[in-house]
Amino acid sequence: MKKIEIMGCGYIGLPTAITFTLAGYEVCGFDVKDTVVDTLNAGHIHIVEPGLQDAMTKAMATGRLHFTTKPEPADVFIICVQTPYRETEEHKRVSDMRFVESAAKEVGSVLRAGNLCVLESTSPPYSTRMVEKIVSEVSGLAPEQFMTAHCPERIIPGNMVYELQHNSRTIGADAYTRDAASAADVAALGIEVGDYVCLDPKTTVTPSGFLKSRFIDDKGSAACLLTLLKLMKDAGTRPRYDAEIHFTVYEEVGHGGATIPAGLDELLAVDMGCVGSDLTCTEYQVSICAKDSAGPYDYEMVCRLVELAKKNGVDYAVDVYPHYSSDVAVAWKAGGDMKAALIGPGVHASHGMERTHFDGMRETIKLIALYLECA
Questions:
Q1: 132, 144, 153, 251: which is the annotated catalytic residue?
Q2: Is 92 exposed, middle or buried (0-12, 13-18, 19+ CB in 10 A)?
Q3: CA neighbor of 152 nearest in space, from 110, 88, 95
Q4: More confident residue, 152 or 252
Q5: Strand locations in 138-265, DSSP E?
Q6: CA Rg, the chain, in Å?
Q7: 123 — phi, psi (to 5°)?
Q8: What are phi and psi of 153, to 5 degrees?
Q9: 251 is catalytic
Q10: pLDDT 10s digits, 183-203
Q11: What is the per-residue pLDDT across 94-139, written as a single tens digit (0 to 9) for each?
């Protein structure tokens, strides 16, 4: 039987420890507070969560769950400590990673070759690499001698007991030595149908202004919209007409554009512009799409966007994308009756290791602002 050690027994760690115990595992809950450990070893929970005390009572009755202030050897370590905000000297709010760093050191003190360390705490990019580095330094083991993964929490207080058992989880991991060559190998890694498997985006910003990363489509355009909103707030400007900014979570699959409210006169989708040998757009430009696989965009809107770009010195290109679509198509298919157009920064190698340039994003922001007639 594998032994799991939960690092931090708060609102995420304690329900996680109880759930794994009831699933048949031996579980150790680690916490730095003596009062918390004493309370939990007495069979009482120290947080408010419906149904958790009953689950705790059942878990303790199995004899497989105990709590300690000293880390113990285990097969799997799951870091569930808090990551509150702190303010920098520049008055920016960033994640306070001191608790994660401390937990990683505790894991490293008892880690053995072949163990797995999972970061579950809500954390900024590259935090898992930070944990891996700390654990490696403290344990004396090379990163390829143990496994590291990120599995962010996806449960809501008030329904944790149910959601821990039924929610699908997102897993991101480094694997140095093992290949998955069959369905059985994948299942052995704990990955099931319906799970999300995320890859390191390997984001790189070059001195010349190129942004290279996975998932720029459509994160790049979301960044353009967020930047424009920040610029408008700082300048105190507003669009000439009533405008709504929507961020679609499920792009182009019916949950995105289909939720756009009725009564709109126009819809401007901000997606990505394709870069290729048979296209005119480059990473330095904003693309104005005349037509895609769903058909032509509104002719008047397309012409208006082109004229705005011409008159205001915006670097643009007009293209046809026969193999692509956008949330406009979803909105139209859902019954939306509005004029619509599509623009976005030029992105090379869509759906691969993508690349754009800050110039293209800047030109996109300019064109959106011109379209909105911000003043």
A1: 251
A2: exposed
A3: 95
A4: 152
A5: 147-150, 170-174, 196-198, 204-205, 210-213
A6: 25
A7: -145, 155
A8: -60, 140
A9: yes
A10: 888 888 788 888 887 777 888
A11: 889 999 999 999 999 999 999 999 999 988 878 999 999 999 999 9
